Amino acid sequence: MHKKEFKIWKKARTNDYPYIVNEIKTEVVLPAIIFLEGPMGIGKTTFTQYFTEDNISSPTYSILTDYSEIVHADFYRLKSSEELYELELSMYLEEKSYFLAEWGLQYFNSLFSSHIPEGFNYYLLELKSVEGNNEERDLVFYEIDPLLS
Question: Could you tell me the pTM of the whole model?
Fold first, then answer.
């Protein structure tokens, strides 16, 4: 897997997320999987709320939430990549435009080789805290080439 920096948003606040979501939706090639990474409580689910335009809660207990053109996953509770087989992800992702995967990057190889339908494009959004400021985040968006290392 090789990641290439695509875009950076410095000191973004949650009220900036609609604009960031719009930029991402304009730039990505569909269908797209977007891995959402960052420490616990950084705002991955909040970002997803803006992306889905829905007032969602974290799917940590249900793992997968299916919207009209979006599937949102929170893999935090998974203990191993073997658990991905039970989720039947490829079935959920048929004819979807976006797959937002919290805590999913650690399962990248398994997802790429066995669970994500062919034709999906891969991206990563890292959310990072801004030192000394609890309200702002740095967001770094990457394009991922799964075949390069």
Answer: 0.90
